[in-house]
């Protein structure tokens, strides 16, 4: 047969669209033509595939070979199509039965010796192959990652000859067996490590229970970073769908080892990070920090030191839960449902308000420092808390109730109530959801309206205040929002939103 078809998968953001590799052999002078919008690395696959086939002891047909990567308008890059191209040529030349390749998809880069090298972004391709009802042939080094897509038949090989023998019926490769999603045994940092700071721990508990954003303000050394690093341990464990989403992002970015994927991400970019580093971008758009923090925590320390233009790009993802990166040829959408924790000093020197009088900042310097943060951004942060300096005892007694395990149990109960009632955390309620789930009595509603007017809160801030109050009620396992919940929620708002 002079025509063969092999299926593979491209990588476009965190998605893996299907690519059909068509190999056609015709009479004429020996030549190999590759079409279908291939980029440089794909064009170079012609030489890699030829050497891999010859060095594996197979015949490279001395005919006019045309390879088409369809769809033609989808850009293809990387060496992930090498294996599919090689199998297509071998099937078109009669060295492999073409029908054996109908129900499989192939990923892998070929070395000149015929060895199959690992590639990035295997998990999104595995999930797409499972949806298409096909098996997946991958390099052995990517087998564990592919097996995270439970129910998928994974064929793992180290060399081209193994794959050829498998499809030719000379030596079947047993489907790779893995245990599914890994269970991480590494414990999270414990909340009991934070000395004192009862009000900050309370705010952290509320933030975890309702998935609210939080801003800690205080002098250096008061435990702001320590508090932020304890938040992932308070959050409920990822369910299978969330874990797969996180794993797919990490598969594309390749920033962490496989064993860390089921943990909730905790990202802490430096304040010198650029806009593309934070939200994603580049000539070939890649996930940024907000996408790498999907279903986890994004911690921005020294918040005013970030470039204001960089911080402003966070406003839409904080509301929508995704980021769209537009380029001349296409638009890519990356998930970004993260929980923001920010920390800042009260003034440029950091010691404003301390009784020792160490601060020497002028009012103009303080105002200029705080003006680095825009009102719309601060409006999207639900909990604003001042973290004061604690005693300097090096070995303080531990409070038995201030442990991650105890706090996580309270968070789990509150989240369970929210999921049963509305299907999402309180922070993600839309406007109709706020009206339905955060109803108040007429007296409390009037009281809240008066308080919001006095504090000059915006409507967005008022709605977020109601969501925090709903979370406080859920922590107490009560159905209705009470006046005390509203009063505590008001304490977490700045005087002007």
UniProtKB/TrEMBL annotation:
UniProt KW DNA-binding keyword: no
Keywords annotated in UniProt: ATP-binding, Nucleotide-binding
Gene Ontology terms for molecular function: ATP binding; DNA binding
Highest rank taxon of the organism: Bacteria
Domain (MCM C-terminal AAA(+) ATPase): residue spans on this chain: 286-387
Annotated CDD domains: AAA
Gene3D superfamilies linked to this entry: 3.30.230.10, P-loop containing nucleotide triphosphate hydrolases
Pfam families: ChlI (PF13541), Mg_chelatase (PF01078), Mg_chelatase_C (PF13335)
ATP-binding listed as a keyword: yes
InterPro entries: AAA+_ATPase, CHLI-like, MCM_dom, Mg_chelat-rel, Mg_chelat-rel_C, Mg_chelatse_chII-like_cat_dom, P-loop_NTPase, Ribosomal_Su5_D2-typ_SF
UniProt cross-references to NCBIfam families, sorted A to Z: PRK09862.1 (NF007365), YifB family Mg chelatase-like AAA ATPase (TIGR00368)
Family: Belongs to the Mg-chelatase subunits D/I family. ComM subfamily.
Protein name from the UniProt record: Magnesium chelatase
